[in-house]
Amino acid sequence: MGKITLSVIKADIGGYVGHSSVHPEVLQRVKEVVEEAKGDGKIIDVSVLSCGDDIALVMTHTKGVDSPDIHELAWNAFVAGTEVSKKLKMYGAGQDLLSDAFSGNVKGMGPGVAEMEFVERKSEPVIVFFADKTSPSAWNLPLYEMFADPMNTAGLVIDPSMHDGFIFEVFDVYSGMSIQLKAPEELYDLLVFIGATSRYCVRAVYRKRDGEIAAVASTQKLSLMAGRYVGKDDPVLIVRCQSGFPAVGEALEPFARPWFVEGWMRGSHVGPLMPVSFAQAKPTRFDGPPRVIAAGYQICEGQLIGPNDLFDDPAFDYARQEASVMANLLRRQGIFEPHRLPPEEMEYTTLPKVLEKLKDRFKLVDEKKPKFSTEGEVAE
Ligand code: F6R
Ligand code: MG
Ligand code: MG
């Protein structure tokens, strides 16, 4: 068998109830469309996942990344699902389908995409991570730990096939530019960028020894694409595991220590990322806290053997509890930062309106001091 492509394309086409999960009939309709395409031989295999109010199509095929056929298939499946979603008056029906007509590539149109092409190994274990109520930069920390932190990934030290390290491709969501940085040699440069999660996200990771693709994340920024807030860019991430890549347990390990991500309530709050089973991927507390599922597959001649629900393990119970404690600490802050995001990061904000309404009531406190505008710049 030659190269196969693994494409994960996801969208929020309506929530049940509010923004908390996907209605079974909507999911069923989406499944029908992709299963039919499988029957017609357009794709080798497909597995449909949901996390919170998002649906992900995990597909294998031989058409390469960015294939218009595959993107159109995903688009059509989401359009068909949207019809059911609209019929049931699901909340925000079709919210991620930003355009009425398909134009060859779903990037820039709303759905999130992570795709990779590779020659299937003797055994090909992969994990599809899928999160709700957060953004693609949520993957920066775990990708760093999986592929660059020997305290997480023992293989970086003791497996000769990983010991050369990995190359990170870092994407600037504002400029659309990307840069490749080597770990461990350029670790501190890498961290300058990927620690700045409001601007940079890891787009892909390659094994340095042979350039083999190791991980790919979706890096859409819906809020910027649409020029306004139309739904968050709840992300997906594909990680290849074992035999020269992180072991499954090394790829899952970062999630055992929850950390804070952006995207909780109204896309405007910070919250802990809670690793959950498929059944628990229903964020209802203050529309959260943000959730992540891990769907494991063994790929066999392009068939997706799985999904295996990898966070459905009591060993992650403690992380879930810890995330709840972290959630309590933040909820105590209510509408105050740092639970609420700083103004420029918020998906919703009334600040400009309130400033405009009250601008004449701001009085200069000290004539001799340089004057600053209400936005913080020095005024002329
Ligand atoms: C959506 C989300 C939710 C919504 C909130 C308000 O993914 O995270 O927290 O932002 O439920 O939704 P609207 O503005 O649609 O009433
Ligand atoms: Mg939604
Ligand atoms: Mg969502």
Named once each, the bound ligands are: fructose -6-phosphate, magnesium ion
Helix content: 10-25%
Binned strand content: 25-35%
- Report the oligomer: single chain
Arithmetic mean pLDDT: 92
Please provide the ordered H/E string of secondary-structure elements: EHEEHEEHHEEHEEHEHEHEEEEHH
Please work out how many helical segments DSSP would assign: 10
Radius of gyration: 21 Å
Name the shape in a single word: globular
- The N- to C-terminal Cα distance equals 67 Å
In total, how many beta strands? Answer: 15
Main sheet properties: 9 strands, mixed
Low-confidence stretches: none
Structural classification: alpha+beta
Layout of SSEs?
Blueprint: E1 3-11, H1 24-39, E2 45-51, E3 54-61, H2 68-87, E4 112-119, E5 124-132, H3 140-148, H4 155-158, E6 166-172, E7 178-183, H5 187-194, E8 200-207, E9 213-217, H6 222-225, E10 236-240, H7 248-252, E11 260-263, H8 264-267, E12 269-272, E13 274-275, E14 291-300, E15 303-309, H9 317-331, H10 351-358
Parallel strand pairs: 13-14
Antiparallel strand pairs: 1-3, 1-4, 2-3, 5-10, 5-14, 6-7, 6-8, 8-9, 9-10, 11-12, 14-15
Describe what this molecule looks like in 3D.
- It is a single chain.
- 24% of the residues lie in helices and 26% in strands.
- It has 380 residues and is of the alpha+beta class.
- The strands form three sheets. Strands 5, 6, 7, 8, 9, 10, 13, 14 and 15 form a nine-stranded mixed sheet that branches. The chain has a four-stranded antiparallel sheet with strand order 2-3-1-4, covered by helices on one side.
- A hairpin with a 2-residue loop joins strand 2 and strand 3.
- It is globular and about 75 Å long.
- The chain starts with a strand and ends in a 22-residue tail after the last helix.
- The model has no long low-confidence stretch (mean pLDDT 92).
- Bound molecules: fructose -6-phosphate and magnesium ion (MG) (2 copies).
- One magnesium ion is lined by residues 12, 15, 19, 53, 92, 95, 231.
